[in-house]
Structure formats: structure tokens, C-alpha cells
Amino acid sequence: MIVVMRTGANPAEIDEVRRTIEQAGLEAFLSEGQERTVIGVVGSDVDRVAHVASYPGVEQVIRVTKAYKLASLEHHPDRTRVRIGDALIGSGGDVVVIAGPCAVESREQILATARWVKREGATVLRGGSFKPRTSPYAFQGLGEAALELLAEARAETGLPVVSEVVDPGDVPLFEQYVDMLQVGSRNMANFALLRAVGQSRKPVLLKRGFGATIEEWLMAAEYVLSSGNSNVVLCERGIRTFETATRNTLDVTAVPVLRERTHLPVMIDPSHGTGHRPLVRPMALAGAAAGADGIIIEVHPDPPRARSDSEQSLSFPEFGDLMDDLRRLEFLRGSSVAAEVPASVPDGIDELRSQIDDVDDRLAALIQERARLAMQVQRARGPKTHGHDVARERELVARATSGEAGALTSDELTQVFGAIVRASRSAQRRQAASEAVPAEPEAAAP
Ligand code: PEP
Ligand code: MN
Q1: Which atom of ligand 1 is nearest to the CA of 182?
Q2: What is the 185 CA–ligand 1 centroid distance (Å)?
Q3: How does pLDDT run across 385-411, given as a tens digit for each residue?
Q4: Cα of 184 to ligand 1 centre, how many Å?
């Protein structure tokens, strides 16, 4: 810590600061400049003398080391990994996916969701039980009955469960049912709650307060850690900014910033972070690409009828799409999201897969053939006319989707043909560009 004296501070004022530091068992190093004196404070727990900031003649007190110690990477260079059931958050490998409804609403709802998210590769189930709602008239959660249903879903699927605790007095109740305690955004600075979960042996998912800086968030983690619980996972869930297009502004930057400052694992919550279903998938991928250790996603069997956060909850197929994309991203990163792989392949599957491989080979050849013909058309037209024949494209899609109903819906077929046409078009554009390159200019006469 450094104490900066005002210009013109008198020797008695400087001496008073020095004495206070030394009486606290710390060392004071004076550096007298031409204009002012600066005092370096060395020793353990220098914060004990931070009050000299209000002494006469003192201009400011500057902290050199971080206010948080247990949470800082500086004091704990080994990264913390938090185990919850089979999921290991912070391993540096697979992105851990926690999924489930905003709130547990019924046995059918939570069981169906648990089965689906497990099938798609989630390894932890979420579900609100005591909901901290902005309005006292909104659905407040099923309370203990929700915790019982979560425990039932865990017994059936084997997925560990996480739920938000809002009252310090409820921690022992939660400990009977859940595998991880969530502290929500609205409670990040509820210090009694932080101490209470800090005394628990269950891991803690600590959401960022929507008005909290990263430093304040780390200080909240420090409360939990200093109360004796070292299993803390931080979760970025969006902060409040001037932007109104989204429910919150998801601060993806927090992921790499935290990486530099703390050894604790970091997750991203794109559901609360955006508040809108179509934005959840891209921001989940952004979080994973930024290096988050996990993502937490709200999923509901019938999102429009969800009793809370219906606009941001994904349907089952939407969650499946997200998991597919995440797996592709993981593949690119060099690891893979744990999907349920059956131990033995049922009879007949190998034969079907080899038929699919044949179809894929033929498809690839056909798509290349189509692009080759499109390039011939382009060559015949010449580089000046390369345009998009929207009418022909529309006819193609109409022909493709007018046949007998098959396994794909007409929307899905439209997407496939859209992609093929786009690829052909970029081949044509490349061809037109190569023909349009002007010949090397002849060397100009001097
Ligand atoms: C939740 O996860 O259901 C929740 C209420 O989140 P937050 O505390 O981030 O708003
Ligand atoms: Mn919610």
C-alpha cells in the first residue's frame, strides 16, 4: 500500500502517519520528493491502516495488491476444478453444460426436461425452487416441493442438480436435496447468504450481480472462500447497461478478464444474459469460444407456456441444435462434449451407417457437379454479367419441396437448397472475379 501525502503536508502530519503504520506492526518507507512525500507500507494485512486516508495531510491511499486474496490467481496459481457429480468444471477440457427450466413447475415438466437434456449431453440439471422475482405477484416457485422433484429427477437420470437458495436459513434444507447451491444475481452482495453458503460443503455457483463490477464479484467470492468453502464457480449472466434491445448485456469479456485474475472456474449464462430465445445459441457459442468452462441454459418442454422466463427458454429441439453447434466448436478446440455414447452398437446400425456414407459420397459428387455446371454458365455469360437469378432459385426450392413429404420438412429442405445455391454462387463469383482481373499493363513508354 502507498500513502501519498498532499503537497505542503507538514512534518507533524507525516510523522503521525508513520507512527500509525509502525504501531500496527508494519514498516513505513518514506520517500521525500521535491513536492510531496510518499510512504510505502509493507507487512501483512496492510488494510489495517487504510484509515490513514482520512488523516490530515494525506491525499490518497493506493492499494498495490488486490483486495481479494483467496480468489486471486496471484495467491493461488493452480486453477481450481469444481466437481459436481460426473462434471468437472474448470478442467480446461470439455465445456460443462448445465441445463433445465428456469423454475421447476411439475413432475412431468422436470422429468421430461431432465431426460432430454441428459440425452443431448448436459451433465448437470438446473431448476429454480424459490424464485427471486422482481414482482411479488409473479410465480415464486414451488419451494421445497421443487427440491423434492429435482431430487427425483436426479435419482432417475443420475444428473446432479443445482438450484438457487435465497435465504441463509434455507441452506441446510437445500443441502438435503441439491448438489450445488446457486447464489443469484440479486443476492450477490447478500453477505449473510454468502457466509452461509461458505459454511456449506456443497459447491457454489455464484452469479454476477447485474450492477456489480468484476472486482465486487470477486470480493463476493472472497466471502464464500474465506468462510471455508473453496468450491466456487463464477457465472457471468449479463449486466445492466443503457442498451434496451436485450434483457441484459452479456459481458463475454468477463471470461478472459477473470482468467487473468482468478483461479476459479467461469461459466456463461446466455439465457439471462440476453433474455431472448434466438440470441441464446450464438451467445452460448461466444462464451465457449471465449474460453468459458461451462454454460448454463434454460430449457422448457413448452417455452411459451413457461411460468417464468418463457422468452429466453429454449425448446427441446433448439437445445439439441445448440448442443450440436457446441460439439462442432469443441471438435475445433480439440476436445468433445460428452454425449451419451451407447456402450455397444445395436445390430444393423453399422450397415445403415455404411449406406449413409454411400449417400454422402454421391451427394458430395452431385453438389460438385452442380457447381461445375454453374461455373460453365458463368463462363458463358462472361465476367460483366454475373447475377443472381432469384426466380430460378425460387423455382428450384419450390420443385424440391413440392414432392412427397419425406423425413425433412419443407423448411429444412429449403435450408439445404439455400446452402447449395449459396455455395454455387460463391464459386461463380470466384470465377467472374478471376476473369475480370485486368491483364498486366504493358510497360509504359518512358
Ligand atoms: C436463474 O438462474 O434462474 C436466475 C434467477 O438467474 P439470475 O440470478 O442470474 O437472474
Ligand atoms: Mn430464469
Answers
A1: 2
A2: 6
A3: 766 677 887 888 888 888 788 888 888
A4: 5
